[in-house]
């Protein structure tokens, strides 16, 4: 039995690093399981090794509404992660057909209408986050649709 194991627990042996780290990036992503392989592809393509992940329904959507409970909680999480792991880049994500955002049907199944609205929310989230964390961090916004990861300018 390991030092931390209890007779009331089942333990899966694993050696976790005790070293503190500086994160390469913080990624705010949606819980939608369809987006998991997209997140993996982004991490691999960019070569990120140390990643702070904020995985919440709607991804960055709640940040566009900082007066909502979800928006306040997400902002607190992001600020805490920044203070702990000192990343210099954050990626904010919203995706097509997101249930937390009403799904594609809430845009009358019009992909362009959905994209325009989601891009507006991402830009609002960027503004809110910039006010909270200052200018020392690069904020990237991505809209994920059924064809790929689209980086907003």
Mean pLDDT rating = 93
Query: What is the share of helical residues?
Result: 25-40%
Q: Summarize the biggest pleated sheet.
A: 5 strands, mixed
Parts with pLDDT < 50 across at least 5 consecutive residues: none
Q: How many individual β-strands? A: 5
Listing every helix as H and every strand as E from the N terminus to the C terminus, the arrangement reads: EHEHEHEE
Q: Please list the strands of the largest sheet in the order they lie side by side.
A: 2-1-3-4-5
What is the radius of gyration?
17 Å
Structure description:
- Helices cover about 35% and strands about 20% of the residues.
- With about 150 residues, the chain is of the alpha/beta class.
- The relative contact order is 0.17.
Summarize the structure.
By secondary structure, this protein is of the alpha/beta class. The protein is built from 3 helices and 5 strands. Helix 1 links the parallel strand 1 (25-30) and strand 2 (51-56).
Compile the SSE list and pairings:
Blueprint: E1 25-30, H1 36-46, E2 51-56, H2 69-85, E3 89-95, H3 111-133, E4 138-145, E5 148-151
Parallel strand pairs: 1-2, 1-3, 3-4
Antiparallel strand pairs: 4-5
